[in-house]
Recover the amino acids of this structure.
């Protein structure tokens, strides 16, 4: 594997997280709990779509096979998607949506801070831009964790349940493989082992503020680094890719 | 029954130094949510440099019934209006 191959895969993964989580949030458009929150979630979805485009444009250039960013998103099968399993979790209810957003945004915040000083100018520029958005996503999600955790008996029960249900998808966020290790040598990738400690501290702080129990680190789901996904991604992609698959020649 | 969250009024500043102008309102349960909702509803295309939110219940407003008492007396006293000065030619911003 060359450095360019590794960077291609790295950008693809970053783009996949953004486009899949963005799609999940976009599913809530017009279905938010109230108008203002509907707009807030849709704004976050659009932030992810925007950065996904930047990651995929770069990935397509690195790949050098004449693919466009759209090709990578709309013509790639499930087994060649590398988003973390957490990002494809269904919305379920507002509690699940917020917990997913919170757990991912803490990770994303530290990841983008690291990538913002990566020794690859293009990647660093995207990260710096995305970090501004992610700081807002995190502040939005963390505030909701506290409101729901300290809200009513029902909101507390539901957000705790959402946390228990999704905790098993957090271990995977910190897995590193050959791609990460090769880029780490070049000062490009983030060291996820360092990140994990920061993530755990910050998550615990917010859970304490919210009066929520941190679930125990039991069995952690894994697979997405190899393109192995839960049953949910196929359904998501079939909806997202429907038009391009049905009408391959369709143009904007 | 009103099941909405509290009503907050939103004021947006379009550029640094400009006055804050009333833009509309949002629902929110606390200050932080009010500010975030105002940001998401009224500034998402980047048209702002500052935001104020204030609980609608905290605004002291004039009463329509007091309209005559409050505003009418100003209308018939033309000497209250600075219209008797000669404005020098070429003076701007007056």
């Amino acid at each position: 594997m060359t450095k360019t191959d590794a960077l291609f895969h790295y950008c693809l993964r970053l783009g996949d997280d953004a486009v899949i989580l963005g799609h999940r949030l976009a599913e809530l458009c017009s279905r938010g709990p109230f108008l203002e929150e509907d707009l807030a979630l849709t704004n976050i979805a659009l932030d992810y779509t925007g950065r996904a485009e930047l990651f995929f444009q770069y990935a397509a250039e690195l790949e050098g096979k004449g693919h466009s960013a759209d090709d990578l998103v709309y013509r790639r099968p499930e087994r060649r998607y590398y988003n973390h399993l957490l990002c494809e979790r269904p919305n379920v209810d507002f509690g699940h949506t917020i917990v997913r957003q919170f757990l991912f945004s803490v990770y994303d915040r530290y990841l983008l801070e690291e990538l913002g000083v990566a020794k690859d100018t293009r990647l660093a520029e995207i990260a710096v831009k995305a970090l501004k958005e992610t700081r807002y996503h995190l502040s939005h999600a963390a505030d909701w964790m506290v409101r729901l955790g300290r809200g009513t008996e029902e909101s507390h029960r539901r957000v705790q349940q959402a946390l228990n249900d999704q905790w098993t998808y957090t271990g995977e966020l910190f897995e590193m493989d050959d791609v990460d290790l090769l880029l780490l040598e070049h000062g490009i990738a983030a060291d996820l082992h360092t990140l994990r400690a920061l993530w755990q501290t910050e998550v615990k702080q917010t859970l304490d503020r919210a009066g929520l129990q941190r679930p125990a680190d039991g069995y952690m789901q894994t697979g997405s680094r190899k393109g192995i996904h839960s049953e949910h991604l196929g359904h998501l992609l079939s909806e997202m890719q429907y038009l391009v698959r049905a009408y391959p020649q369709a143009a904007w | 029954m009103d099941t909405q969250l509290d009503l907050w009024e939103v004021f947006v500043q379009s550029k640094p130094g400009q006055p804050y102008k009333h833009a509309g309102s949002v629902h929110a349960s606390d200050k932080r949510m009010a500010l975030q909702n105002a940001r998401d509803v009224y500034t998402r295309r980047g048209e702002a440099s500052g935001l104020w939110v204030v609980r609608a219940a905290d605004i002291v407003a004039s009463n329509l019934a007091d309209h005559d008492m409050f505003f009418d007396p100003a209308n018939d006293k033309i000497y209250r209006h600075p219209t008797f000065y000669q404005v020098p030619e070429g003076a701007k911003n007056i």
User: Anything to note?
Assistant: Chain A has eleven helices and no strands. Residues 209 and 239 of chain A are 38 Å apart (CA to CA). Chain A touches chain B at residues 34-37, 39-40, 43, 139-140, 143, 147 (CB under 8 Å).
